[in-house]
Amino acid sequence: MSSSGPNPEPVSPDPPAAPMRPLLTQSWLDLAFLHWAVDPADVAPLLPRGTVPDTFDGTTTYVGLVAFRMDRVGVLGLPGVPYLGSFPETNVRLYSVDGRGRRAVVFRSLDASRLIPVLVGRAAVRLPYVWARMGVERAGDTLTYTSTRRWPGPRGARSRIVVRAGGVIGEPTPLEHFLTARWALHTSLLGRTAYLPNVHPRWPLHRAELLECDEDLVAAGGLPAPVGEPVSVLYSPGVPVRFGPQRRGR
């Protein structure tokens, strides 16, 4: 595995060892990870300054469409809020590496069904949150995620994803680790590129079958519309997550 530009840190399925003082806590539940290969040349102009596309094999990067349930978002160690902090979310994300070799994700959009978290996310950390009408339904092992944008748009941009969760993956492939084991995000904040780390347990990943995918969120994020089936479809029951500054290990 390699990436153009700086030598990237190793991909690790386990979080960094350095402890973290939690500023923000939440849980990500019932996740569907869909990924398509994309040309790094299409990704590079969409990344924050000082970062380049992170590539798995030196030539290919990926766009991810990730649908899930956000649960009980809390701040400064306080208990999570049941209503405002719990809602469906669907993200379009890219993969980046900065000049220090730190791997991360870059969000092109984060569709969420609660307006107040959308406003806070846009104002506080300049993340491209979008208010949408959304739902997550489960029938046995089959999950259906739906989203239709309300504001700021493009109004009507939508997604409908139906997956059937399968068996637990005992040992994920290097590509599956590359696409899921991400311990930070890069974003443009106050004219600079910020690196915002997170920690959570190792992903419990399952095989998944894609039954339906009708979406235009990827194209709305400035990328070519995906062609063909995703190269990777995964499901996870979820993990608890902490965001905050990492302390140096002793």
Automatic annotation (TrEMBL):
SUPFAM superfamilies: Acetoacetate decarboxylase-like
Domain of life from the UniProt record: Bacteria
Pfam families: DUF2071
InterPro entries: ADC_dom_sf, DUF2071
Species name: Streptomyces cavourensis
Record-given protein name: DUF2071 domain-containing protein
